[in-house]
Amino acid sequence: MTGTLVLAGTPIGDVQDAPPRLAAELAGADVVAAEDTRRLRRLTQALGVAPAGRVVSYFEGNESARTPELVEELAGGARVLLVTDAGMPSVSDPGYRLVAAAVERGVRVTAVPGPSAVLTALALSGLPVDRFCFEGFLPRKAGERLTRLREVAGERRTLVYFEAPHRLDDTLAAMAEVFGTDRRAAVCRELTKTYEEVRRGGLGELAAWAGEGVRGEITVVVEGAPDKGPEEVGAEELVRRVRVREEAGERRKEAIAAVAAQVGVPKREVFDAVVAAKNAEKNTGI
Questions:
Q1: pLDDT digits 0-9 by tens, 177-194
Q2: How far apart are CA 245 and CA 38, in angstroms?
Q3: What is the average per-residue pLDDT within 100-115?
Q4: Any coiled-coil ranges, and where (predicted)?
Q5: If DSSP codes are grouped into helix, strand and coil, which group holds residue 33?
Q6: pLDDT grade, residue 262 (50/70/90)?
Q7: Which residue, 21, 34, 38, 282, has most beta carbons within 10 Å?
Q8: How confident is the model over 8-21, as pLDDT tens digits?
Q9: Is 126 in a helix, a strand, or coil?
């Protein structure tokens, strides 16, 4: 019989938030794969438990190499517990590769539900929670970051992001540029920790605040785009908007997708307008 892969949520701040089952799983697993073994040691000490099984590191740098090893252990009947530094494994943390490989081998995968920065920030934000999407970390490069934000400019669901504190002001400024300075948002800092703070306001206001310097672990929640219905935009205007984005460095495919989302029309409609304009230019010799 194959073993079991257990994904365990760990506290995002206050160790008292640890799921009751976490201590039992740590004590009983054959293998504990941890994103940071030093943090795991501090966690086990706080919980008063000592792992009986083998402890190995499992982080971004060795995830690809270690996954096959762990899958073989699982195939041999081992119970493998996966924990990351905070929150749920595979949610912007190591874990996806191992889960996918385990599923492919027919290994049972289960979880010890635990704290989540995504859901905690969403609940505290004061923004709509009935529909939301998690976007993880944005690209570090300014151009790529703007492109990613433009892709969701028309997204009506609430958006949730992770961000490093030293990039927060640039990210909020980029969001204000793409989504508008008045779009409501919440910056959730140091959730469940001593200096927890939730700052709410328009993106422009929050960008100015972040420019003074912010510390800690950050989750940003942004209100979705207002439901205005499809914008009345003709083919010529669609083509013009695509060209503006291309001239700014976007690839045509990305520009078409962004314009379609912004206007509220199918991407095919924008694509057809661009192709028709190109053909018209050829026929007139422009």
A1: 999 999 999 999 999 999
A2: 47
A3: 95
A4: none
A5: strand
A6: confident
A7: 34
A8: 999 999 999 999 89
A9: coil
User: Which residues, at least 6 apart from 89, have a Cβ–Cβ distance to it below 8 Å?
Assistant: 7, 8, 9, 82, 83, 95
- In one-letter notation, the amino acid at residue 64 is S
Type of residue numbered 167:
R
**Residue 90 near residue 33, CB atoms below 8 Å:** no
Bridge-based pairing of strands 158-163 and 218-222 is antiparallel
CA angle 126, 132, 135 (to 5 degrees): 110
Cα–Cα distance, 8 to 63 (Å, whole number) = 17
Cα 167 to Cα 211: distance, rounded to the nearest angstrom? 10
Q: Could you tell me if 218 and 118 are in contact, meaning their C-beta atoms sit under 8 angstroms apart?
A: no
Coil, strand or helix: which one is 34? strand
* 3-class DSSP assignment, residue 189: strand
CB atoms within 10 A of CB 90: 17
Label residue 98 exposed, middle or buried (CB < 10 Å: 0-12, 13-18, 19+): buried
Q: How far is C-alpha 259 from the chain's CA centre?
A: 23
Q: How far apart are the first and last CA of the chain?
A: 70
Cβ neighbours, 10 Å, residue 145: 19
Q: From start to end of 47-183, where are the E strands?
A: 54-57, 79-83, 108-112, 132-137, 158-163
**Within 13 A of 3's CA, how many CA atoms are on the CB side?**
19
By the 8 A CB rule, do 81 and 58 touch? Answer: no
pTM: 0.77
